[in-house]
Design goal:
eleven-stranded mixed beta sheet; Rossmann fold; 11 strands; Universal_stress_UspA; UspA; Rossmann-like_a/b/a_fold; 294 residues; Nucleotide-binding universal stress UspA family protein; alpha/beta
Length: 294
């Protein structure tokens, strides 16, 4: 069983349809939303000084969380709901640890709720940076309301040892709703040109050799994924634009609404396995992002 912690606002947002589309076969889901100290003020309860008044609020919010979970649970097994109190990022990270969750899923941006703590973009980034678990960040798209359409995705790799462990993590999640997956790696053309200029004595194109080596490694990933994800069409591409531009190109080429990549470290300077691309940059893109940690 894979435990998935799902952070939601008063409305479920795009994360629930995306989870339903991905169809993780062994997942059980725990839904949470957060209520911080500032939300008490928006409730108009800054004068609620008695334990009975506070208890009524807690009971009402937990009832709402259960109702939200029940509403979203269609197609998501084992869904339960609860309210977390405190700073949203910290509360979600603590709950993920206590649940031994393997995946944290939440929305990239908030809905404007007067009653509930919202999962803002900064909270999504905070969770992505701080979580030891893999993190799914869902963004609204034209498929936002659809929960039965297959997912098209890009898997970005630099073929490092860590990236290969992330590949195994993706296989472990085994998304059954992934119809098309484009395996991409990138090496900027100008870097290849530098190699050829600095090593003319070799008498061969270093750039061409690097491209062939990356294509070979990509094909080994394609073969592995094709064997394990039998419902998924897996293809490969090696791109030569700067990394962030290569990601955008791959997403466009695959008509993908999900980017999958690996990340390690837990700081603002965290780097993706694609070398020069920071986690912050990846989270600024138009697609939903599955950040794998292995």
């Amino acid at each position: 069983m894979i435990q998935v912690l799902v952070g939601v606002d008063q409305e479920a947002g795009p994360v629930v349809p995306l989870l339903k589309r991905l169809q993780f076969p062994r997942a059980h889901y725990a839904f949470v939303h957060t209520l911080s100290a500032s939300d008490y003020l928006s409730y108009g309860i800054e004068g609620a000084r008695t334990s009975d008044e506070v208890e009524k609020i807690v009971v009402a919010e937990n009832r709402h969380a259960r109702q939200l979970a029940e509403s979203a649970a269609k197609g998501l097994p084992g869904a339960v709901g609860e309210v977390l109190f405190g700073h949203p990022t910290e509360a979600i990270l603590r709950r993920a640890e206590s649940l031994h969750a393997e995946l944290v899923a939440l929305n990239a941006a908030h809905t404007h709720s007067e009653r509930m703590a919202v999962l803002t973009g900064s909270v999504a980034r905070g969770v992505a940076l701080g979580a030891h678990q893999s993190v799914l960040i869902a963004r609204p798209s034209e498929l936002f309301q659809a929960d039965d359409l297959p997912v098209r995705a890009v898997f970005a790799t630099d073929h490092s040892e860590y990236a290969n462990r992330c590949l195994e993590q993706l296989i472990e999640l085994a998304p059954q709703g992934l119809s098309h997956l484009l395996v991409m790696t990138a090496v900027p053309e100008r870097e290849l040109e530098v190699l050829d200029r600095e090593l003319p004595e070799l008498g061969v194109s270093v750039a061409a050799s690097v491209r062939r080596a990356l294509e070979t490694r990509n094909q080994s990933v394609v073969k592995r994924l094709s064997q394990e994800l039998r419902h998924t069409t897996v293809e490969s591409v090696v791109l030569t634009l700067p990394i962030h531009e290569s990601i955008d190109q791959a997403l466009d080429q695959a008509s993908a609404d999900l980017l999958i990549l690996g990340a390690k470290g837990h700081s603002v300077l965290e780097r993706l396995t694609l070398g020069s691309v920071s986690l912050h940059q990846a989270l600024q893109g138009p697609a939903s992002v599955l950040i794998l940690r292995a």
